């Protein structure tokens, strides 16, 4: 009988769920809508019901279920499984661990979604084989996960890994959603790149693919920038240089501080592949400490949208191991 | 019979040594000259002889000696105790652990001096009670130690904690000893502050204490800058603003990445006390993530020059505990 780990990746639009075995192989993978009505009060119940239906459908025995690992889009107290807030879901303080454990009767581990994606990449993705790595997720915003010695660095108040809020524009930076100015997120996330592109086409007098597209659609995405770059557009090249310079110095400084084995770049923007990685490596090498240059590697994430559910499964597994060890120890104690 | 831990802080001019008990109390503390002649070949032998004399003098029994913990001014392979290089000592690759263990017959732990100072501050200084902290040493250069979950983060090639080489001046920065431009060390170390001060007095047309002093002595130290600030000198205030802005953004970014409980500021420059800490806190708060602002504290180091020997003793102690545990386990194995 296979043990089953349940990974859940709770997002603002949809929630990804998966049953995964202890070797990290998918047994089943599905997706449900995230119902945000009434301050998100149906979200957890929908997850519980969906898991329960799938358990019945697949004829999984209760004893097979090891635990649930869930990533949520907000700050979390990892010890207690309390979610402080998820603006995207309409949640205030929510006892995610307590509620899910009560409803399912199995152990639940809760962490921030960027941390869970990082641990997923460590287990089965680009970070496989290392225990010291950073994961940066370049999506609408920028998330980050710091893994040292195989453990997520949560920080004293759960703000570990807030890579998007590293300041990389010292003067005259854009204002960030967090209230500060010049955060990495304002220039190197999908929305940051879009903003830099729009600013650039408005300023330039030169001809440019990007300018044409902007005049036609009145919008520019990060993907547009990399598409234009692919077509040899000069302005797009300058924007990508800017983006990778800001991102490069931030990652270089993380390198000088922690000298991790790998820095894994994921999220939608990382789909640009080598068009992003090549200039990024250039600036990383320029700004990081010499020893780091030859020992810390920048790599692209490999799990894509599966990183969250795989990471969730890993958390359920290690937590399950931990619980079993405690049980085993008390068993030994009872014997002696 | 008290167990004795030996802490050694190997510096470019002098070497500090101490016998310390397992509660962190000094039994004896002394200093010897660091003899750098002939590529530093006498350094380790002098340390061994000095320890051996002191053991005789204090009538310490061999069984009391738990181990030696030594900090060296260069990059170290912590696992093997191999020192890659110490430019200040004239050393190339040196088997510090192997040599010292062979000569003394007791276990030796070797680490970079900034890491050892950090662990000292964690055990008995400003970081007492926390297991997640950063230590920044503002001396002639800038050293750093990152402690996560009670362990020093060494990084994949020993470059963890190279805080001095975080880039905080993106454009037109000074060239650093490491070959890069704009490193924190070029603007916030004692020599960096001195350089900023000299540049400022050369540029300004205003009257200033600092300018007077510079014209008299043809030199300005970091201490001069804080002395002038104390006397209300406007130019000194501007220099300190600049220094703490660069240092503040670097520490703020470390905060957003790791959200440690404390960031401990040590080294000669930290003697400026609140004149440094107050503006530093201002910029730290301006640039760091909101949650970090209310949970990560900037504090001054409290151990001064003793941090190195105390940290060395701690390394000897934890390593000793580790060895004893292994011995104890094999003892149990023999019994069963």
From TrEMBL, chains A, B:
Alphabetical keyword list: ATP-binding, Kinase, Nucleotide-binding, Transferase
Enzyme class: transferase
Coiled coil regions, renumbered to chain: none
PROSITE patterns with a match to the protein in the record: ROK (PS01125)
Domain of life: Bacteria
UniProt-listed InterPro entries: ATPase_NBD, ROK, ROK_cs, ROK_glcA
One term of GO molecular function: glucokinase activity
Enzyme Commission (EC) number: 2.7.1.2
Stated family: Belongs to the ROK (NagC/XylR) family.
Protein name: Glucokinase
